[in-house]
Design goal:
- By secondary structure, the protein is α/β, with parallel strands linked by helices.
- It has 10 helices and 7 strands.
- Helix 3 crosses helix 4.
Length: 285
């Protein structure tokens, strides 16, 4: 009997030890899960608990290196082209001052097609994301000459859906079209799959609701829209009415003053926050 009781006690001890180990492991997993949610990401992102912010929870599966960003012409905090960085920071500051109590949507458009709006929109969004307490969302709204999908391909990301898919299909949500950009705290909405009649979607009520919801979801998210030329696209004119601000890009030496004045006269002067001379020898915004 004594031996049997000893064996039973030993079995119970083993079971109890096993159960204790399982409980410790479970507690450890729970602790790790809590730490992973509360700890800022590897990129040094900060979470401000006083705001409805997703900054501290943003994850970037792949990031561009500084060399890659330099090669594709995107500014970053350590960029060698300090004049360009300073000019973009000035534009960013002007936007923040124009909307001191909240986030905003800004449309970047050019006077003529291929005038450099995509370059300015991309770099403005990148510059906004320099601030670790803010995020930027860059939307490709140029269905005639979209560019952002090419940037995603460089970091081996190929989203299934984009803006046009969301606007045309009620079963696709916003969460299905927002992609990492390869830049910390910056997100991208590519143009998506283009089909006949897509121009109608950009001017629909759903586009207006989409921009409102994007702004309201996160109070630290600033939206930049890469739009087609305002002089050649009805879409750009409609989207301009939906945005808080407009930045007009003028290719240096590419258009006459009369053309610029005509376009500026057609833009709401309260929304026009700046005219950018692109490729100017000594650029100033």
């Amino acid at each position: 009997m004594t031996d049997n009781r000893a064996r039973i006690a030993n079995v119970r001890s083993i079971l109890e030890n096993t159960q204790r180990k399982q409980r410790r492991r479970a507690r450890k997993r729970e602790t790790q899960a809590m730490v992973s949610l509360a700890t800022p990401q590897a990129q040094g992102e900060l979470l401000n608990p006083s705001t409805e912010s997703e900054v501290g929870f943003m994850q970037d599966p792949r990031l561009f290196t500084d060399k890659q960003l330099e090669r594709i012409g995107v500014v970053h905090p350590r960029s060698k082209n300090r004049a360009l960085v300073d000019s973009l920071r000035q534009m960013r500051t002007k936007l923040f001052q124009a909307c001191p109590e909240g986030n905003f949507t800004v449309m970047v458009t050019s006077v003529v097609p291929e005038g450099g709006a995509s370059f300015i929109a991309l770099n403005l969004a990148s510059t906004i994301s320099f601030d670790r307490a803010k995020t930027s969302l860059l939307i490709d709204g140029n269905m005639y000459d979209p560019t952002l999908h090419k940037m995603l391909e460089m970091i081996k990301l190929k989203p299934q859906y984009g803006l046009l898919d969301y606007l045309s299909d009620p079963n696709i949500g916003i969460e299905n079209i927002v992609s990492p950009s390869g830049i910390p705290r910056m997100r991208i909405v590519p143009i998506g799959n283009r089909m006949e009649g897509d121009t109608e979607h950009l001017t629909s009520k759903k586009m207006s609701s989409f921009l409102d919801e994007i702004k309201q979801r996160y109070d630290n998210r600033f939206v930049v829209i890469d739009a087609p030329s305002i002089s050649s696209s009805v879409d750009a004119r409609v989207v301009a009415d939906l945005c808080d601000f407009i930045i007009l890009v003028v290719p240096y030496g590419g258009v006459s003053p009369n053309v610029i004045e005509t376009v500026v006269d057609e833009i709401d002067e309260q929304k026009l926050v700046g005219v950018v001379l692109n490729n100017e020898p000594h650029a100033s915004f």
